[in-house]
Each structure stands twice: as structure tokens, then as C-alpha cells.
Amino acid sequence: MSLNPNAVIVANKLKGAGYTKAQIAGVLGNFELESGFNPRVNEGGKVGAPMGVGGYGFGQWTGGRQTGLVNFAKQQKMDPGDPNLQAKFLLYELGGPEKKAAAYLREAISPEESARRFLTDFERAGIPKTKQRQEAARAIYGKLGFLDQPGQVPIAQGGQKPSGSLSVSEILAPILGGAANASVVEERKSIANTLLDEVKSSMTQNILQNVLNPFGGFQ
User: For residue 192, is it within any domain?
Assistant: First the structure.
């Protein structure tokens, strides 16, 4: 099943800002719980313009942050309910008033930990529903394969990187989960890189030996 088109807009914006797939999944897992990716939904379910009371949009921006969204829309000369506008506003917040939340999010290596960090530092939801957000993030992560392709794709078609093209961090993420601290991650990455170098060296030596000595006649 493909990803919600509005979620794809947000995903591409975050990718352009340098966030990883796991971190993007964490953001989207939260937005799925907050609004179901409906940029025009008010808290309580009414769809339309911002009501100024309760939350609004992808992130259910509330109070002064909702006012910030409306003012940002005016500056951009766009509708505050436009999904592209809200994706831009998300990056504006992460690069400005919510930069601490952005820095915290960028340290996460799994979808689950990304979802938890985005919840606690960016969303600051009254009713956390942490587990549901983490489950949504993990499910969405499996639909972000289109981010590995050059350019932008209108609607994600699902799938992930082949195992051979995964980064070391992505390989280690399912093992380490959100509980791993930076030192543990770096230690595991060092071990993994060492193993990879040894495998490459061994393969290279075998190939050269077969090329130079195909019939075993030269010693």
C-alpha cells in the first residue's frame, strides 16, 4: 500500500534538509496520529480554516504556534491549509524556534526512537500515545524506499534498500534500537566497518590470485 501523498510531500522536504529515513519516519508517525495527514483538520475533527482554538494541520499546531503557522502562510502568500506550506513551516520551526528538537531528532537512528524524540521535544502532546506513534513510524519506514531513488516521486511505492546498499547505521538500527547511546553506536559501527574491510580485502586477494594463477601453474 502506497504512502499518503501529503506524507510524501513532507518526506521529500525533510530529505532535502538532510534527515534520514528513520528520522523522517518518526516525524510522519507522529503526524499520522496527530492529523491523519490532513492539513486542514482542526482538533475535534472539523475540516477547514484554522479555528484558533485547539490544534490545526499536520502537527496539530496549537496556540502561539498555530498563530505562527497562519502568519507564515501570509508571508508566503499561501493557504495555511496547503500541505506544501505546512511542510515548509515544519522546516522553518526545525531550523528556528524548534532547533533543539531538530538536534535531538538528528541523533536518533531508528524509526521508533525518532518518533519518541519528535513527540517529546516537538509535538509535546498532552496524550502521548507513544507506542502507537512508534508503530506508525515503523510501518511508514517500510514505505520510504522512494527516498533512495534520485529525484522526487509523487507517491511512494514502498520497499526498502537492498541489504547490500544499507548504511552501517541502518544495519545496526534494528539491533541497537532507541536505547543505544552514541558511544555504543560508534563502537558497533567501528566493528562493522572493520569486518567489511576484512571481507573486501579477502575478496580482492582471491580475485587477483585467480586472475594471475588461473590454472595453478605459477607459484
Answer: no
**Is 43 within a domain?**
yes
Q: What is the per-residue pLDDT across 58-113, written as a single tens digit (0 to 9) for each?
A: 999 999 999 999 999 999 999 999 999 999 999 999 999 999 999 999 999 999 99
| Cβ atoms 69, 89 nearer than 8 A | yes
C-alpha R_g of the chain: 22
Contact between residue 72 and residue 89 where contact means Cβ atoms under 8 Å apart: yes
Residue 17 located in a structural domain: yes
CA–CA separation, 37 and 39 (whole Å) = 6
pTM equals 0.69
What is the per-residue burial (b if ≥16 Cβ within 10 Å, else e) of 28-56?
Answer: bbbbbbbbebbbbbbbeeeeeebeeeebb
CATH of the domain at 92: 1.10.530.10
DSSP type of residue 78: S
| Residue 101 counted as domain residue | yes
Alpha helices in the chain (DSSP H): 5-16, 21-35, 64-76, 83-95, 99-106, 111-118, 130-141, 168-176, 182-212
Domain that holds residue 149: 5-160
CA separation for the pair 161, 142 (Å, rounded): 10
How many structural domains does the chain have? 1
Q: Which grid cell sits at 5? A: 501523498
pLDDT digits (tens, 9 = 90+) for 104-151: 999 999 999 999 999 999 999 999 999 999 999 999 999 999 999 876
| Alpha carbon distance 209, 5 (integer Å) | 52
